[in-house]
Amino acid sequence: MNDDEMAQDRTGELAEILGMPARDFAELFGAGWTENDGPVWHDYDSDPSGGGGLPVTPWMIAGDPPQLMIRVFHHGVFLAQPEGEWRHGSHGLEYRPGLQRYLPSDEFGTRGPEMIGELLRRRRRTFRYCRFCRGLTPPELRIDKDVCMGCGTEWYGVVY
This protein's superkingdom (predicted)? Predict the structure, then answer.
């Protein structure tokens, strides 16, 4: 998959899987969903081959910095708090699902806002402002509790 395909907003496609109008989906889950470039996940429950088939149902990610991940099925969604992991050197940041929750489609209206809010609050509590650039920075993009990687390079000479 090339960069253009990965950066494409998939909000409408996700809403369609759930049979929802795109605006209703965006109101509940947010917008700007793109395919996560991290590890490919396999839906073993939906694959009758027992795991020999093709990977399906990718994790999607949204936010800058990333704040929420989602896997959409016709019956509901898996939501997760993204966790950044440097797996391939200085250009190998991957987001993996951390804390996960399942939300069945018949509970979107009752439990959805609370569950999504909980995951967003947990993730956002990990963000800190860089003391140099004042940018809001997640833990995976900091070299210290209050210094982002960019300012670490500029002001401390850190080379990645």
Answer: Bacteria
CB within 8 Å of 133: residues ≥ 6 apart: 148, 150, 151
SS3 sequence of the chain: CCHHHHHCCCHHHHHHHHCCCHHHHHHHHCCCCEECCCCCCCCHHHCCCCCCCCCCCCCEEECCCCCEEEEEECCEEEEEEEEEEECECECCEEEEEEEEEEEEHHHHHHHHHHHHHHHHHHHHCCCEECCCCCCEECHHHEEECCEEHHHHHHHHCCCC
Residue 117: phi and psi, rounded to 5, are: -60, -40
- Tell me if 94 sits within 8 A of 109, measured CB to CB: no
* 126 contacts: CB under 8 Å, gap ≥ 6: 138, 139
Two tokens, residue 33: 């969903």
Structure tokens of 50?
Answer: 């027992």
Phi, psi angle pair for 139, to nearest 5°: -60, -35
| Alpha-carbon distance values, 100 to 97, 108, 127, 134, 136 (Å) | 7, 16, 19, 30, 24
pLDDT of residue 85: 92
Alpha-carbon gap, residue 5 to 151, rounded angstroms: 30
